[in-house]
Amino acid sequence: MKQLTGSEAVEFYDSGKWKAMTDKDLVALQLFQERLCVPWGVFHEAIGKVLGRPIWTHEFTKIELIREEYLGKREKPTLDEIISQLPQEKVILVVTGDEA
Question: What is the radius of gyration, based on Cα positions, of the chain?
Answer without folding.
Answer: 16
